[in-house]
């Protein structure tokens, strides 16, 4: 209905179509039994349902990294991509988390462990946890993720002391209706379910009814002379169960409040004082199942800043994880079924790590590291997402602005390399996938070295994307106030430099080092700006293509030990080694590595030919850079470099042509003038002095 006004009727229909058809319907236990026989996955436990949820929204396998990428995190179809995660490290962490959930689904042990997301502030762990909860809510609304619970009805007809307001009582723990069957009869049903189940796990359920439901079952069975069928037919209704954090139903977030005044009843529930006068203190009907573990049953429990809790308070987590039970004060144990996720930052983890009294808790924890992103181009995507999701003023973000901000962030996070043969910036480039075959750098070895030297893991310290994003936002607003219509790397550098000292989470002892890293990034940007200006001064796309085709003709002849036709005479000649080396030397490819590079480019061309794609040197980054640099060498003699140094000597037509060329590279006109002023003089000086 794009372009049309949506009426209330339209909105109402849209809502009605979005909710399960059976959301308001009450079914019989007999119906449920038939339904679960037809679709055994209805009876999945929490780990199994959450594991299937991740697969349901789609996966993509990253063969290079050996990581399954879950599309709910890499595409976020529910929110139009608003919550997309970037970076190999983050997707590795998500992959590890899901693997632990899937292991728990198979009963391999992690179902009895807390999944502890550990990372620095702003690394994305809380946002991933939030996203998982939102998708779980959506999944339970769909047929593939459906689950059911039950409610007791007409209780007052049999149990005379029942409060009339409690004549209908929903399962306080939202338990699966299958729990209503005694264990022996339940096992018969479950065996049948597993015969029909198409899944990598088996259905299991040995939970006891919650104490209140156990009370109702005992009293009703006594009334009906142990006729279970009569109890279930007359007093049980099966209803659809949909997860909702707002309703505290199957999804719950627990946040520690007063560190010195923590109460275990927040987790396990407490006496319902309004019912004490009705039922008495020891009656299970007088218990209020409002604890966080009770609310999270059948779904996800999320513990925020978990390690800020007092040690004694964490004991409840030991029972909840290992024994999958909770023990409310003065009440029987209650079985629970949920994926328990905890989150914590680095200071709390370091404090608790060396505490011997925390050994039992640590043993019941599966740690999943959530480091910062270590590929600066992926980091830049985080900032782009921030800008996409905001009402950004009409301002142009110049080339390299977000990437250079990302590079600064990455430099603060990675460990300085041991080897003198590679700099910190080169290491960041290697992590970003910018290695040339001629570079003698082993990225895997670099990562292993970084992990060994880091306190916990590489990427667990440094400047957060949140801090850098805030400074980009400040730079945008500052540019707006000044009437500037563009945001350049130079202005973002200024804001980063000015505000490092003002950021509370950056230790003072790191400031000098971070300022040094910022200078490294300035130098890197200067090199890129110079490259862009050279590109603007001398670029000729037709000449690049012609030179690229010539290079490939001579490379193929060289590899095949054949001749090539001379462009002028038409006669066959040997491959022009001087021309080939003139191109390759622009990438600093040594003589003894030329054959490797030529074979690499040849393989690339052959592969594209098999795919039906024609040759275009623009599509090969290394070849393109080499050809551009050679073109610069060929054409720079015709450029008026003195005009770059002195604006007075610059002809308006000449300047406009250069600005136009920079605009073609993605600059705004004002940004193009700035980069000409910043890098043009550097280009001119290097050429005039050379």
From TrEMBL:
Chain ranges of the PrkA AAA domain: 27-421
Domain of life per record: Archaea
Protein keywords: Kinase, Serine/threonine-protein kinase, Transferase
Organism in which the protein naturally occurs: Haloferax profundi
Annotated protein name in UniProt: Serine/threonine protein kinase
GO MF annotations, alphabetized: protein serine/threonine kinase activity
